[in-house]
Amino acid sequence: MDDVRLRVAGTGTYLPEKVVGNDFFEGRKFYPYNIFGKRCGEGKELTSEGIFDLCGILERHYAGEGETPSSMGTLAAIKAIDNSGIRSDSLVGIILATVGERNNVPSGVCKIQKNLGEHYDVKIPCEAVDITVACAGSVAGMIYANSRVFRRLGNYLVVASEDISGMVQKDDRNLFLFGAGAGAVVLTPSEDHRGIIGEYSISDPYNGNSELITRDAGGFLRMPDGNKVLMEAIRRMVDSAKELKKNVGWEKADVYIAHQANGRILDGIERRVSRDGAVVYRNIGRIGNMSAATCLVALDDAIRKGVVKKNSKVIMTSFGSGLVTAAVAVQF
Question: Which CATH number do you get for residue 322?
Answer without folding.
Answer: 3.40.47.10
